[in-house]
């Protein structure tokens, strides 16, 4: 799919929120805080038909080409919560998004959050995130107009409202991708680590963003090293095995203080393996080619197969392991191509501009899709280990 440089920004700048945070625009007056007691301030809240009440039906394609349909049902009364912050998706024209729910926000929770409703109550606040337009300005070298402090403050306020009005002592998983993951890193540091609420933390899933760790910890929060561990952190950025991070990549890079990016593979934890050991992925790929944002129409998932469901799962096709190589630490994803297998030997998920694949972005657009089934299963496993009935 042909894309101009402006189109590239709409696809590729999801992870540049960290760059924008150092270039926050000067504000003449502090914007008024959002009122998170208003239902319209939330993308997803329990007990209502909203952006998370969306079809998650999946076509399962086996290695022999046989297919079946997996239906989806939200849990009736889940005993724990999931608090999610979405990545950079806003197509609003300003430096920060407004609080109106658009198709971009609806699409991303369809891809990254709605499936968790099978095991937890899902909360997803709208927030005035740094927009694609602002990050495009950074990429074009014309300055930054996005206020990352505003974006963080909104999520902090939403979290405070959730704790005061909805949490009621319930255990919770924090999860986010890209800009959302960056915001959650700040929330973990400022509002969770060392605070009483840390005791309620089942886990944090910080995906598609470098999480600098020291001695296997982010602050006092350790990386998860087994599926039954709680109060720990899962984090990774993903690249194809055949296309590891190039020297210019921002993802997976050891930071200026020498702290390596953390990498934890949920699939490996569930398989009882170390994250550096290969494990099959339970991926849920969009039949429409969507990831964190819209992408190219995917290639056929199998010969002579027409997919009528929103998602596709192909057991055994993908596997992954965490790799530490040079300055980079990342999830290395392998497509287990087999000439005898009628399924595709390739998957979509790269950032593509015209004929050029931007290898420094890896599989950023489908970071979450790649391990969606594993993340949901891990959430349930960790919740039970925490003591949730």
TrEMBL record:
Classification lineage: Bacteria, Pseudomonadati, Pseudomonadota, Alphaproteobacteria, Caulobacterales
Signal peptide: 1-22
Protein name per UniProt: DUF3089 domain-containing protein
Keywords per UniProt: Signal
Record InterPro entries: AB_hydrolase_fold, DUF3089
Domain of life: Bacteria
Pfam families membership: DUF3089
Transmembrane annotation, as ranges: none
Database matches in SUPFAM superfamilies: alpha/beta-Hydrolases
């Amino acid at each position: 799919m042909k894309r101009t440089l402006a189109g590239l920004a709409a696809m590729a700048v999801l992870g540049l929120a960290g760059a924008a945070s150092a270039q926050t625009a000067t504000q003449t007056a502090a914007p008024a805080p959002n009122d998170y007691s208003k239902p319209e301030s939330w993308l997803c809240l329990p007990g209502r038909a909203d952006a998370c009440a969306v079809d998650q039906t999946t076509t399962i394609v086996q290695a022999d080409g046989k297919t079946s349909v997996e239906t989806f049902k939200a849990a009736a009364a889940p005993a724990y919560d999931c608090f999610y912050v979405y990545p950079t998706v806003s197509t609003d024209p300003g430096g920060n998004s407004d609080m109106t729910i658009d198709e971009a926000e609806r699409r991303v929770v369809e891809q990254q959050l709605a499936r968790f409703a099978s095991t937890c109550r899902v909360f997803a606040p709208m927030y005035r995130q740094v927009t694609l337009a602002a990050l495009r300005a950074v990429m074009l070298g014309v300055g930054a107009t996005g206020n990352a402090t505003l974006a963080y403050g909104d999520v902090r306020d939403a979290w405070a409202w959730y704790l005061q009005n909805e949490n009621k002592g319930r255990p919770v998983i924090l999860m986010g991708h890209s800009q959302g993951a960056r915001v959650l890193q700040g929330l973990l540091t400022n509002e969770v680590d060392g605070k009483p609420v840390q005791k309620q933390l089942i886990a944090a899933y910080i995906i598609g963003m470098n999480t600098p760790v020291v001695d296997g910890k982010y602050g006092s929060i350790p990386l998860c090293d087994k599926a039954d561990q709680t109060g720990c952190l899962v984090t990774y950025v993903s690249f194809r095995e055949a296309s590891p991070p190039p020297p210019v990549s921002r993802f997976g890079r050891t930071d200026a203080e020498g702290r390596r990016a953390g990498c934890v593979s949920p699939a490996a934890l569930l398989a009882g393996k170390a994250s550096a050991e290969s494990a099959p992925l339970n991926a849920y790929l969009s039949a429409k080619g969507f990831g964190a944002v819209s992408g190219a129409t995917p290639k056929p998932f199998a010969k002579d197969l027409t997919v009528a469901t929103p998602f596709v799962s192909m057991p055994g096709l993908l596997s992954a392991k965490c790799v530490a190589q040079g300055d980079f630490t990342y999830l290395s994803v392998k497509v287990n191509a087999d000439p005898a297998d009628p399924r595709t030997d390739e998957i979509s998920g790269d950032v593509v501009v015209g004929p050029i694949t931007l290898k420094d972005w890896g599989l950023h657009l489908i970071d979450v899709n790649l391990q969606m089934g594993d993340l949901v299963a891990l959430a349930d496993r960790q919740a039970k280990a925490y003591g949730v009935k």
